[in-house]
Specification:
mainly beta
């Protein structure tokens, strides 16, 4: 299965649970150069669930104990030649990635990032991980940026202790609910279309 796509320059990166792309071996990740698919090194040991571009590199999140030859801790970066970890990574699965105010944001089922507590959402500034206040009390499946705020969707009911059913917004300092929220099901996808947030 292909789980996510991310353009970078003139290339398209694809991730998922596949082992081949265009008839070639490609474990969990591949890049389309306009004419053919190519593997990203030796790939990942488990499914890659999310991709993002951060500071000119492709970031992959998922069930990643190992990416290439390195311990990945749920998340890794592809520098064009090989996979590298992002410090100690997370202690669980990374399910969503985006960039907000110059930092890489990861959401998922983890409760720590970089060895410190971070309840299911954390920010990476290129050197270290930090939590986003008290995080959320359920898995984060989707992330987006809308009206200069970070939007998180998932299975949670609270964000930093405040009621926020399945969707919440982060203004850079605090978590808040978004309208009347959603009372049932899970929010699994978010995007912005014509200046509106689509759930």
């Amino acid at each position: 299965d292909a789980r996510d796509l991310a353009p970078l320059g003139h290339q398209l990166f694809a991730s998922g649970s596949f082992s081949r792309a265009g008839g070639r071996a490609a474990m969990g990740a591949a890049v389309w150069d306009g004419s053919r698919w190519n593997a990203l090194g030796s790939g990942a040991s488990y499914a890659i669930r999310a991709l993002a571009e951060f500071r000119g590199e492709v970031i992959a999140g998922g069930e990643l104990p190992i990416a290439g030859l390195h311990l990945a801790g749920g998340i890794a970066r592809w520098n064009g030649d090989q996979w590298q970890p992002l410090a100690a990574g997370t202690n669980g699965t990374v399910l969503a990635l985006t960039v907000f105010r110059g930092e890489l944001i990861a959401g998922g089922s983890f409760v720590a990032a970089g060895g410190a507590g971070a309840l299911r959402v954390a920010a990476w500034n290129g050197e270290r991980w930090r939590p986003l206040a008290g995080g959320v009390d359920g898995d984060v499946f989707a992330l987006a940026v809308y009206a200069d705020e970070l939007i998180a969707g998932g299975s949670f009911a609270h964000a930093d202790g405040r009621v926020a059913y399945r969707i919440a917004r982060w203004d850079g300092q605090t978590w808040n609910s978004l309208g009347r929220d959603t009372s049932s099901g899970h929010v699994t996808a978010l995007t912005v279309f014509r200046d509106e947030l689509i759930i």
